[in-house]
Amino acid sequence: MDTATKSVELAKIAAEIAVCRNCKLCEKRSKTVPGIGSPSAEILFIGEGPGKSEDLQGEPFVGAAGKFLNEMLASIGLSRADIFIANVVKCRPPENRDPEPIEVETCWPFLARQIAIIQPKLIATLGRHSMNRFLPGLKISAAHGQPKRRKDGQVFLPLYHPAAALYSPSQRIVHLADFAKIPAILKKLESQSTNF
Ligand code: URA
Fold first, then answer.
1. Domains plus CATH for the chain?
2. Which residues fall within 8 angstroms of residue 134, CB to CB, at 6 or more apart?
3. What is the pTM of this model?
């Protein structure tokens, strides 16, 4: 699929999300947050769900955690225009509670279609909820920063959620060190290496 077609297909999904009433998260949302970025991104970041700023603006990671995410991207020479960012659920869970399993399941087809269109070389999960949607049973404290190829061939990089570092400078170093691995992982994937 060429980039223009991917863009059209992603816009169709965003339009469906905008009118979605499939779970109760629709009741309290201001805006839906379908995801944003390059339709042909090599790397797809997946967070958990929109927070307050995201709900108001309709874009993922525009609050404090998003600022740190931008910093980490810049540290490896990437900007938001190079990547795609989406969330496991597209509407804000009230009071920033964890999304309920039924909400994650109900929203899943949107994310599955986004992944199928973008076909990223690498999916970087942000936080344990996003990681466990794809790699159930892993512990983020052990899995972060280590690329993992699933049986279906998709490669994942579990990362801590950027919000976890907001009040802990020592954690920022860990986050930045995990991000620093991304260029080499992408390079390895370009050479079709299978040893993840
Ligand atoms: N946290 C997330 O997981 N996603 C966002 O979009 C913002 C904060």
1. 3-190 (3.40.470.10)
2. 123, 125, 150, 154, 156
3. 0.96
